Amino acid sequence: MKRQSDLLVIGGGSGGIATAVRAATHGAAVTLFEPNELGGTCVNRGCVPKKAMWLAAELADGQRLGKAVGFDIEPVAFRWRTFVAHRDTYVERARQAYANRLRKLGIEVVPASAEFAGGHALHADATNYEAPHIVIATGSRPSPLELPGGERAIDSDGFFRLDELPPRVGVIGGGYIGVELAGVLRTLGASVELITSGGLLSRFDSAIGGELGRLMRSEGIAHREGCGVKGIVQDAGALWLDCSDKVRHGPFDCVISAIGRLANSEALNLEAIGIVAGDKGIIPTDAFENTAAAGVYAIGDVNGKPALTPVAIAAGRRLADRLFGGEPHARLDYGCIPTVVFSHPPAGSVGMSEGEARERFGDAVRVHTTRFTPMLWSLAGREGRMLMKLVCTGDDERIVGLHGIGPGMDEILQGFAVAVRMGASYADFRNTLAIHPTAAEEFVTML
Length: 447
Description:
This protein is α/β, with parallel strands linked by helices and about 450 residues long. The protein folds into three domains: about 1-140 and about 260-325, FAD/NAD(P)-binding domain (3-Layer(bba) Sandwich), CATH 3.50.50.60; about 150-260, FAD/NAD(P)-binding domain; about 345-445, Enolase-like, domain 1, CATH 3.30.390.30. The protein is built from 13 helices and 23 strands. It has helices spanning about 15-25, 40-45, 45-70, 80-105, 155-160, 175-185, 205-220, 310-325, 355-360, 375-380, 410-420, 425-430, 440-445; strands at about 1-5, 5-10, 30-35, 110, 115, 120-125, 125-130, 135, 140, 170, 190-195, 220-225, 230-235, 240-245, 250, 255, 260-265, 295-300, 340, 345-350, 365-370, 385-395, 400-405. A five-stranded parallel β-sheet has the order 4-3-2-8-18, covered by helices on one side. It has a five-stranded antiparallel β-sheet with strand order 19-20-23-22-21, with helices on both faces. A four-stranded mixed β-sheet has the order 1-7-6-5, with no helix packed on it.
């Protein structure tokens, strides 16, 4: 049996759905393959449930701040299972919204895995499907902890399956997943130890990781930096980490591994179309998302470009515009991508780090930085300071990087990202009137 479409999309996550929807609005006949839940990692095991847990942690922190500034309250215990039920209901609504959208547009959804059966053909569920264009959007999964006792740890997927708050947690990894989960768990009441072989948030401007480390320590998160985990052992009902510092860290009730992710490409039979996956299963693509096989494209986590939901969505939409919307030059510009880490407090970045800028522009780089205590923290007597940083270059001091960490940074960053992308200068920021008293005003008043 053979089925014909204009576009075949492998993967029903954010990128795959965005591609399918945009192509269908251009009039293409689209078939989408997804053996699991619609929404992919972001909706089911990533951004959406993570943000829900972060919001719960923010409410817990708000109770403590309220008491500190004079509210006659005692912080109440967090009912983990009650909140998880609310979270999962929200996620299910998001899945259903996707299903309704696909159905309305006439996109065929095949609830099965697909593999290549030739240049423009896929095989799934005992059926052959053909189309002139095939998009790979299979996403990624957590990297396994391949160490002695590594099976005793859970990963970020396992975190969302927890049915109660573990009292003592060890988190392995200083990337965005590690610091986010560590912050949520600590703020909700767990004792947390973060174990990293290097610093925190190494892909961000160095000032962000350093400031986050100080803030995390002030909130009671123990950070063991420069400590490579060698194995996990279980003893007397608890878990312990053997590390390169020759210290056994613990005891823990739960160990979470957040050491990176692998692209989901090994089950696609890429050999059939001459594609060779690279390190960690990454499928190489050019600036237009083309793979080495004509008519085959890859977007999202699987192509090794910034692993962010908005990136996958934007890349998929522009690809569909190029293939079916009469825009032959449409592609995503991967420069100047804004991103936020939902740590406690959140950190945000858009554009180049100071190191990247100095490597590219040398002595033409000028940096403006400010640190200050947010008003609520000051009123509550809380330790810690916000950080804001502008990286500028040239005689006009065009802003090529903007970075910050502190309360509200997740919302502050979006508007400033527009300004940076439009080529705003330091003088443009200085000529913009401040909204007082706010934290965001520091970006337009710093010297």
